Amino acid sequence: MLYHAGKQPFLDVMSEKSLTALQNDIVDARYGQPAFRDFQNYIGQTNYRGEEIYHYVYPPKDMFGSLMKGLTASPFSNS
Fold first, then answer.
1. Cβ atoms within 10 Å of 60's Cβ, excluding its own
2. Contact 33, 16 (CB under 8 A)
3. How do residues 35-54 score in pLDDT, each as one tens digit?
4. Alpha helices for the chain (secondary structure H)
5. Which of 12, 32, 75, 76 could form a disulfide with 24 if both were Cys (CB 3.0 to 4.6 A apart)?
6. Under DSSP, is residue 62 helix (H, G, I), strand (E, B) or coil?
């Protein structure tokens, strides 16, 4: 994957299909998804006292579409 970095147009890399494939490559197959998730998710762990530690909280599904549109409409999308 890293070998191909920078060889595809930005909008191809940022497509749902491409990002989903990348995500599925790095997560356990049990957590793979066929498309962008449509449910609240987080990355975290439980510490030795049983407390949750959140490293990343996924944006709510009603915000995700506009966030992706904003990202792909950035000045970087011309490359």
1. 10
2. no
3. 988 887 888 999 999 999 99
4. 10-13, 16-26, 61-72
5. 32
6. helix
Digitized pLDDT (tens) for each residue of the chain, 79 residues in all: 567 777 888 888 888 999 999 889 998 999 899 998 888 788 899 999 999 999 998 888 888 888 888 888 866 555 5
At 53, give phi and psi (nearest 5°): -120, 120
Q: How many residues does the chain have?
A: 79
Q: Which residue has the tokens 């762990």?
A: 45
Q: How far is CA 44 from the centre of its chain?
A: 15
Contact 79, 14 (CB under 8 A): no
